Each structure stands twice: as structure tokens, then as C-alpha cells.
TrEMBL record:
Catalytic activity: Endohydrolysis of (1->4)-beta-D-xylosidic linkages in xylans
Active site: E234
Record-linked PROSITE patterns: GH10_1, GH10_2, PROKAR_LIPOPROTEIN
Pfam family, one: Glyco_hydro_10
Enzyme class: hydrolase
EC number per UniProt: 3.2.1.8
GO biological process: xylan catabolic process
Protein name: Beta-xylanase
Keywords from the UniProt entry: Carbohydrate metabolism, Glycosidase, Hydrolase, Polysaccharide degradation, Signal, Xylan degradation
Length: 322
């Protein structure tokens, strides 16, 4: 399937979320990443629990490995994520501080991490998943301790620490919940209008082969209408969204998935060039997808199969820019 590579064929940056262990130990994986992509995101290595194991300790080992790999191989690095309600170190969940101490915790983490990678990480998911599907603010530890104003301040702390890094608000559900989509768009529009340094919006797009084209179009074009850069930041297309324990991979499903990849790429390619920050898949192959272990089901969400071979989905991506 296809000749050349995604990075040669696509008119915008194309990336994947990487597992540092696989990058270090799996030659097939590493070589495929080198060949196909020109942007990388750490799947887990830049989350707070990975980088900041205790209040005064940072562990840069895996994240630095990924950044060095990217530099050696000419890849852009997108940072994920400075602030999230999940994957927090235990000490944060247990932190017994005043409002001012919580603010300092947020500020220090962001400034230290962004400062450490200044000039090496091109862009950051500053805040990840602050909204619920019904459009309300998630009642995260950050909202509980600091109120929703922490979002604007997180962007400002990141901007101060590296004025050249592009700053994104990242979330999921744009394509399946019109209510959530409207809330996300309102959040980023209000941030921008009040002078908060936000450059882009990340559409995770963990989607499914039978998501409607109309919903996918609405997600992409509504995000683009903000004028912000748009990153399809965590794309994968599930074939088994109903969690069948016995489903098998068929050419029919593979072709439906290819058509959906094609549609997403085609729609993304139709937004203004200056807003196309790129498209990143969440993981590299079906063998390393987060979906089967998370939902305990078989699935095949990515453009490469368990043997690192290109699937119909890969051709679908190429067809999207023909
Ligand atoms: O590394 C430990 C291992 O030592 C331990 O034995 C095992 C037992 O649970 O856990 C392992 O850690 C897991 C880690 O992935 C590495 O595999 C965590 O439990 C697990 O929670 C973690 O899941 C990650 C999840 O985010 C939570 O951080 C997934 O790999 C990662 O793909 C997923 O990514 C998220 C994005 O950050 C945000 N958007 C949604 C996306 C998918 O959920």
C-alpha cells in the first residue's frame, strides 16, 4: 500500500503518540516512526505523574529521551500535557495546601516543565479535558482548589516560560456531542477574547468507523471557525465501539475505516493552511493502541497493523489529500 511515507505525502505535519519503552526497545516500531512521521507526542512521558513524582523531584529521563530522538530524527515535538485531572502524582491528590499553595503548585509545575523543554518542544497541550460531555466544567481537583480561572492562568504561566511555544486547549467529544463542542468553542473563544495566550485547539478525535460525516465535519469546521490553529491531536478510529469480545477484523471493516480516515483527512485539508497544525494518531500500530487494554476488547484503530504493515486506513489517509 502506497509508496514513500505519510510525512512526504501529506501537506501538513503528521505525527503519532509514542511509547518511550517501545521507542527504546522495539526496532520495528522505532524505524516506522522515523520513516512515516514528522511530529511526535509523548503518550505518557510528559504527564504530571511521569515528570513530577514528588513535590521537589522531577524525572526527565523518558521525556528527554523522546525529545532527543525527535531532534536526532528531525521531528517536531508536541507536549502533552501540562494540566489534566488524570495521571496526577499521588502527592498532588494528597496535597493539603491553601489556595495560594495550590496556585504555586500549578505555576511551578508549568514553569518548570515548559522551561526545561524551552526551544525543544514546539507546542503544548496546556489544559486537557477541562469540560464534561454535558458542557459543564469537570469538577476536577483543579476546579475544586482554584476555580475555573486556573485555565486562563495556566496558559499565561506557559507563555511566560516559553514565549515561542504554541499553546493549545485539548479535549475530546467535538464530533459526538454538539453540546460539548459548543462549550469547548465558547471556552477557547472567551479565553482568546480576554487576551489569554491561546494559539490552538486540539481535537482528540478518538472516533469510530460509523461516526457520521456530518458530525466529523462539524467538529473540524467549527474549530477552524475560531481562527485558532487546529490540531487533530489523538486520532484513532475504533472498529469495535460496542465492545464485542469476539469481533474479528474483516476487509469490510478495514474498508469502512479507510473511508473514515479519508473523510477526516480530506475535511481537515480543506481548512485554511495557516490553521493546519497537523494530524497526530494516538499510538502507532494496532499492537500498541491504548484501546484494547483500556476497554478489554479486540480492536484495530490505527493505520498500521500488528506486524507494522500499512492497512487500508493508510491508503485512506493518502486518498484524503488526492
Ligand atoms: O506503567 C504502569 C505499569 O507499571 C503498571 O503495572 C500498570 C498497571 O495499571 O499501569 C501502567 O501504567 C499505565 C500507563 O498507561 C502505561 O501503560 C496506567 O495504568 C494507565 O492509566 C495509562 O493509561 C494512559 C492514559 O492516557 C492515562 O494516562 C494511556 O496509556 C494513554 O494512551 C492515555 O492517553 C489519553 C490522553 O493522555 C488524553 N486523551 C485520552 C487518551 C486515551 O485515554
Amino acid at each position: 500500500i502506497g509508496t514513500g511515507s505519510l510525512k512526504e505525502k501529506l501537506p501538513f505535519p503528521v505525527g503519532a503518540a509514542l511509547n518511550v519503552g517501545s521507542l527504546k526497545n522495539n526496532t520495528n516500531y522505532r524505524n516506522l516512526v522515523i520513516k512515516e512521521f514528522n511530529s511526535v507526542t509523548a503518550e505518557n512521558a510528559m504527564k504530571m505523574n511521569a515528570l513530577h513524582p514528588s513535590i521537589d523531584t522531577y524525572n526527565w529521563t523518558d521525556a528527554d529521551y523522546l525529545v532527543d530522538f525527535a531532534k536526532t530524527n528531525g521531528k517536531r515535538v508536541h507536549g502533552h500535557t501540562l494540566n489534566w485531572y488524570k495521571s496526577l502524582p499521588t502527592w498532588v491528590n494528597n496535597f493539603n495546601g491553601t489556595t495560594a499553595q495550590w496556585e504555586d503548585l500549578l505555576k511551578t509545575h508549568i514553569e518548570t516543565v515548559v522551561g526545561h523543554f524551552k526551544g525543544k518542544v514546539a507546542s503544548w497541550d496546556v489544559v486537557n479535558e477541562a469540560l464534561e460531555d454535558d458542557g459543564t466544567y469537570r469538577n476536577s481537583i483543579w476546579v475544586q482548589k482554584l476555580g475555573v480561572g486556573y485555565i486562563a492562568r495556566a496558559f499565561q504561566y506557559a507563555r511566560n516560560a516559553d514565549p515561542d511555544a504554541l499553546l493549545f486547549y485539548n479535549d475530546y467529544g467535538h464530533e459526538y456531542s454538539a453540546t460539548k463542542r459548543a462549550a469547548i468553542i465558547k471556552l477557547v473563544t472567551d479565553l482568546k477574547a480576554s487576551g489569554v495566550p491561546i494559539d490552538g485547539i486540539g481535537l482528540q478525535m478518538h472516533t469510530r468507523y460509523n461516526q457520521t460525516d456530518a458530525n466529523l465535519t462539524a467538529a473540524i469546521t467549527t474549530a477552524a471557525a475560531t481562527g485558532l490553529k487546529v490540531h487533530i491531536s489523538e486520532l484513532d478510529i475504533a472498529l469495535n465501539p460496542d465492545n464485542s469480545p469476539t469481533l474479528t477484523y474483516t476487509t469490510e471493516l478495514a474498508d469502512l475505516q479507510a473511508a473514515k480516515y479519508k473523510f477526516i483527512v480530506k475535511t481537515y485539508n480543506s481548512i485554511p493552511k495557516s490553521q493546519q497544525y497537523g494530524l497526530t494518531t494516538w499510538n502507532v500500530t494496532d499492537a500498541d493502541s491504548w484501546i484494547p487494554p483500556t476497554y478489554n476488547r479486540p480492536d484495530w484503530p490505527l493505520p498500521f497493523d500488528h506486524l507494522y504493515q500499512r492497512k487500508a486506513a493508510y491508503q485512506g489517509i493518502l486518498d484524503g489529500v488526492k
